[in-house]
Write a structure and sequence with these properties.
heterodimer, A: 375 residues, mainly alpha, 2 domains, two-stranded antiparallel ribbon, B: 320 residues, 11 helices
Chain lengths: 375, 320
């Protein structure tokens, strides 16, 4: 057993990736046990998850729909998730735990909706403007959290939670008082020109949506990776995250880099916000904090805080949550089971550092045994 | 109006206080506990489920389910806190991450189980256990005094339970050897270890205590503010109580002040809205008061904070 573990997970090369995969597989196994306990076939349940996300063929489709349309709407939900996960990952690189992604998303979504969404700007102006406003307003919230952290030494977790709820109630108030659509109990739908997703595109006899910001998400992920791993700025941010005292001693400004990391993180969260509220959705539901901001923490951890890893992790988690609607209708199980599987994945992802140390320990023990034999 | 502010404020502040005491126990022993939010939710779920089961047995008017549900909630919270213990102590995970993971797990698990149990046991599709608000009582005599009497009027029974537990917890923390060991583990675990204290055991016990105490808080909210158990219980009160204990500098009595400020800020705002006859949407503006007050207080007070020195550090015997 130990030997198999060492073989699978030992060694330096791509070790974190393999450990992440290992924890995913174990979690899916745990999920399978839950399905079996409920008297369902785990394979068909997982199959339904993939089918719901357009990654596997369904048995039958409604008119003007097929696997491609499902896949496009899957990409539509994936886009904000990638941005949100990147936001968490960048902050974590600087040793900051950005739990305020939800609040930043709401801010970006709300301000972009108000300024551009309700205006009558033409599409070629409105769409880039939405992105810019989203990034800037998210960055402002990030800057506030970073400022509170280094100026007043307020734990960023506590401050960002307070800010999350404060912002949520403020926006709820404004939406309920001024921008409420009585039938849907949500904010008034934004103009199509400002929406980052083209909805109801009719082509090839199909009706689907096109998430315009998806390529941007991939490009931004690559850029962030370049910034973190290949530039002085990124190096300084990482140094602050790994050891504040050492970084300070090396002449790296802690406060500047913390602020910078939070601003970048906020901008990314803002992009997540506009792609969620002005792309995937076209309106804001008052009174709730988007859960995506919290799930993104999980996703970033699962992706080993690496921007490219975040893309794959977002892919997995979004596939589970997006496919859960179809699965629950096919299998007759509660939709919450998807969240449950996600949180089990998280638990194992949180233990990945322990697993790495454990592998190191047992492989050293094994080597010792070999040495003893040789002698 | 002042009476109402006091009555509602206390009903909000005391559960928060007991939860914050739980947080203090955990953090004083050196384990960062962001999991309070999840622990109170899971505790409330467990207690509410027990209460709903017992209500069928005893009938609606009996008070037995009410008291048993608090015991059940505490047990549930203790049980669930083991997840945090397992991740933090056994698997040496980052304690902040572990806390967040426990919260996510609690939300997912309770909403899943609530639906499941409602369907399989009570045969209805619903995502909540309906409890109704708890009865209230007034202390005869004293409650007649103007203003001060309001502290003794329309009191929820759980407020009394909480005060009793809080006094015991204060005593344990500051007057017993266990409390001293616990504080030593948070400040200098290696010294504590050298003195023959089992650091991990103390930390285990204190996280379990914090689970039980937060669960009582969750159950109190389920019986007062929300009047049922549903996923709506995750309103961030757990995080508020963490803010309260940071403001209270990790000691119990100043934390009580912080909780009372939150409580009265909240109820005061609500009373103001009612008094001015504003539409109900303005309630949302009032709801931000506790959060903003917390932030402002933190701005002014967190400079002088001295958190437990080994807070958040994984205890590693080999490390010096």
């Amino acid at each position: 057993m130990k030997k198999i573990l060492i073989k699978l997970l030992g060694g330096e090369k791509l070790q974190m990736v393999r450990i992440s995969l290992f924890s995913i597989i174990i979690s899916l196994f745990v999920g399978a046990i839950i399905f079996i306990a409920m008297g369902k076939n785990p394979f068909s349940a997982y199959g339904n998850l993939l089918q719901g996300s357009g990654l596997l063929m369904k048995q039958k489709y409604a008119g003007r729909q097929n696997m491609f349309t499902d896949f496009m709407s899957f990409l539509d939900t994936l886009t904000p998730m990638i941005f949100a996960a990147l936001a968490v990952a960048v902050a974590l690189k600087a040793g900051l735990f950005n739990i305020g992604v939800s609040g930043m998303m709401l801010t970006a979504g709300f301000i972009a909706t108000l300024t551009v969404g309700y205006s009558s700007l033409p599409a070629f102006l409105a769409k880039p403007l939405v992105l810019i406003i989203g990034a800037v307003s998210g960055a402002l919230v990030g800057a506030l959290i970073g400022w509170l952290k280094y100026r007043f030494n307020i734990n960023e977790v506590v401050s960002s939670i307070m800010i999350n709820y404060t912002l949520m109630y403020i926006f709820t108030f404004f939406i309920n008082t001024f921008f409420l659509e009585p039938t849907s109990r949500q904010s008034i739908v934004i103009a199509d020109e400002a929406r980052l997703t083209l909805v109801n595109v009719k082509a090839f006899g199909l009706k689907f949506c096109i998430p315009l910001a998806f390529p941007l998400a991939i490009i931004v992920a690559i850029l962030v990776r370049y910034l973190i791993n290949r530039t002085t700025t990124g190096f300084e941010i990482q140094a602050v995250g790994l050891g504040k005292k050492a970084a300070n001693y090396a002449g790296i400004s802690i406060s500047k880099n913390m602020m910078l990391a939070m601003i970048i993180s906020g901008a990314l969260a803002g992009l997540a916000g506009v792609t969620y509220f002005c792309g995937y959705n076209a309106s804001i539901r008052p009174g709730v904090v988007p859960s995506m901001g919290f799930n993104a923490i999980a996703v970033a951890l699962l992706g080993c805080c690496d921007p490219i890893g975040c893309i794959f992790a977002s892919f997995l988690i979004t596939a589970i949550s997006n496919g859960s609607i179809y699965m629950s209708s096919q299998q007759g199980v509660e939709i919450e089971i998807a969240d449950l599987i996600t949180s089990v994945i998280l638990i194992f992802a949180a233990c990945s550092e322990f697993l790495r140390m454990y592998i190191e320990k047992i492989s050293m023990e094994q080597n010792d045994k070999k040495d003893v034999k040789r002698v | 109006m002042i009476d109402n502010i006091i009555i509602d404020g206390l009903a909000f502040a005391l559960p928060m206080f007991i939860m914050a005491i739980g947080g203090i126990y955990s953090e004083k022993s050196g384990i960062t506990n962001l999991a309070l939010e999840g622990l109170q939710g899971f505790g409330a779920f467990f207690g509410a489920f027990t209460a709903v089961l017992l209500m069928q047995q005893f009938g609606g008017s009996s008070q037995v389910p009410y008291y048993i549900s608090f015991i059940a909630a505490a047990l549930g919270g203790m049980l669930f806190s083991l997840v945090h213990v397992l991740l933090c102590i056994k698997f040496k995970a980052n304690q902040v991450i572990s806390g967040v993971v426990v919260n996510i797990l609690a939300a997912a698990l309770t909403s899943f189980l609530t639906k499941r149990l409602n369907e399989s046991i009570f045969g209805k599709t619903s995502n909540k256990f309906v409890l109704g608000t708890s009865i209230r009582f007034s202390v005869p005599g004293i409650s007649g005094i103007p203003v001060i009497g309001a502290f003794f009027r329309n009191v929820y029974p759980f407020e009394v339970i909480i005060i009793i537990i809080a006094v015991i917890m204060w005593y344990v923390m500051y007057k017993t050897p266990f409390g001293m060991h616990l504080r030593a583990c948070g400040d200098n675990p290696h010294a504590a270890d050298a003195a023959g204290i089992d650091v991990n055991r103390i930390r285990l016990i204190s996280v379990i205590i914090s689970g039980g105490l937060s669960a009582i808080a969750g159950m109190s909210y389920a019986y007062s503010i929300t009047a049922n158990f549903s996923p709506d219980i995750y309103l961030g009160f757990g995080y508020l109580s963490i803010a309260a204990l940071i403001f209270g500098n990790w000691s119990i009595l100043p934390t009580l002040e912080a909780c009372l400020i939150f409580g009265f800020a909240r109820s005061g705002g609500q009373a103001l809205i009612q008094q001015l006859g504003m539409p109900s949407t303005y309630n949302d503006i009032v709801r931000i008061i506790p959060y903003v007050v917390t932030l402002l207080l933190l701005v002014f007070f967190s400079k002088h904070n001295n958190s437990p020195r080994a807070l958040g550090e994984i205890y590693d015997k080999g490390k010096r």
